[in-house]
Amino acid sequence: MQTATRRDPATPADRTATEAPVHVVPRARADSGSSEDVPSPLKTLCSTCHLKDLCLPCGLTGSDVQRLDSLMFARRRVKEGQALYHEGEKFQFIYAVRSGTFKSVLTLKDGREQVTGFQMAGELMGLDGLAAGKHASAAIALEDAEICAIPYGHLSELASVSPDLQHVISRLMSREIVREHSLMMLLGSMNAEERLAAFLLNISQRMKARGYSASEFHLRMSRAEIGSYLGMKLETVSRTFSAFQQQRLLEVDKKHVRIVDLDGLTHAFEMRVQ
Amino acid sequence: MQTATRRDPATPADRTATEAPVHVVPRARADSGSSEDVPSPLKTLCSTCHLKDLCLPCGLTGSDVQRLDSLMFARRRVKEGQALYHEGEKFQFIYAVRSGTFKSVLTLKDGREQVTGFQMAGELMGLDGLAAGKHASAAIALEDAEICAIPYGHLSELASVSPDLQHVISRLMSREIVREHSLMMLLGSMNAEERLAAFLLNISQRMKARGYSASEFHLRMSRAEIGSYLGMKLETVSRTFSAFQQQRLLEVDKKHVRIVDLDGLTHAFEMRVQ
DNA sequence: CGATTCCTTGAGGCATCTCAAGGCAAGTGG
DNA sequence: CCACTTGCCTTGAGATGCCTCAAGGAATCG
User: Fold this and answer.
1) pTM for this structure?
2) To pair with A182 at 20 to 30 A between CA atoms, which of A22, A32, A249, A266?
3) A187 touches strand D (CB under 7 A)
């Protein structure tokens, strides 16, 4: 279990309770174990959400955001280790992360797993389900999390009367394609150090975009999950962390990472094998 | 050069001239070297296209297809080795392959290339450009090819009055995401034999969907391009082809491939390392 | 017909994997 | 409160799959 880690200078989850401007979660639901089956009756308004500049409404004008408000997205809590949706499950919603971190995983018939992404606050999940009408991957919470469930049918109705909204959705899907391109680049033509450097720099940027420190953060995922995502074994991930530490690029203590030499790390990422 | 290869039982390019039902390419243009800079004045109607069940109009009803017809997509020839668009180029069109084969490539600053996909007749290219308004990859013709240039602005105008069309476009983008998921699976957790087997089975299915033999086909891409796509070196691709041949799964003669034992190949694809 | 490109194959090297042992922190139960 | 378990991480040593380098063959082209 990786809950409630102490002394964390930049933990999204810790800040959520005080930052979330939309309603207050009733005590009764907060600790309910069965809260992941039925969407919570709590509703969320995009217009007052602290994530509106990162999430779906990003770039939309007032009238479009108000249209989104009319959908009153249901909020839902997902406990650490639990699935928001499973591979093969019927596609009805896309999900926006409100707090916490998720991993998206594919499973091969023989049980081999591939982590295809990590999602943080403000990021969308489930867009892969549109293709076949069922989710192509599973989404698992890496810590206690909260999401907005966005009914895709309603969203696309709304998009049909608002070209701007439609454009935002299309751009988000395109961004997902581009993101996967760069991961393919990584998996196809980088060595272990480049992969881990690229990963850490990416996390760093995303933390920064969320108002947290870009140089010091807590990883929510295990070495094995990082390894799966980066196409390497957990031991190699661990060794590469140690190597970076010896090169004075990082200070690592379990899941706590401090980037000591950003330029050096960037250089490791571009370490062309000349 | 890999043009006009002899004795090819299933070559899309060879058949295009007789199959293409839409207009006839005037002699003058057919051999013009400068035809890839300016969209050809030739226009294409989806409703009469022999690819309509594979391509954009797939699943649409008559009225929506007629709306697509009204856009009169420009046709354009691209010669082998030439780029349909470059990385970083302004995004204005998405492209549908009419005939020929393309590769999509990303280039790293140090010159390393990653092939992110191969596109055949009826498949769309360029959807990754939407995210940032410029193409995130380049598209290079692997043989003389013909495409439809679909102006994205017009298409999305059309989509705003036709929910079905919008849904088709969204589904195609989602399909691209799913496709990249499985490539990540491949790059992240498969060995050389599994990768090549997966690749060949995928090509086989796509050939079949286009009315060609699923068991015998011509590869339009080089060993180096296959290697880049699959995250391995060209020598390893070559050796793996040889290994499959020795295992009596394939018969390989340069770019001509005959699948002898489909089940065996499928099994190699699922070769769990027990 | 030489130049070029692409493919195949061999031999040796190396990055990463595999297997194994041990440490640390947190949780559990007596 | 302590012994024990469990999960995760680190590190070492040896194995190996793929890469690198190199040579040679076959087809194509000007």
Assistant:
1) 0.84
2) A249
3) no
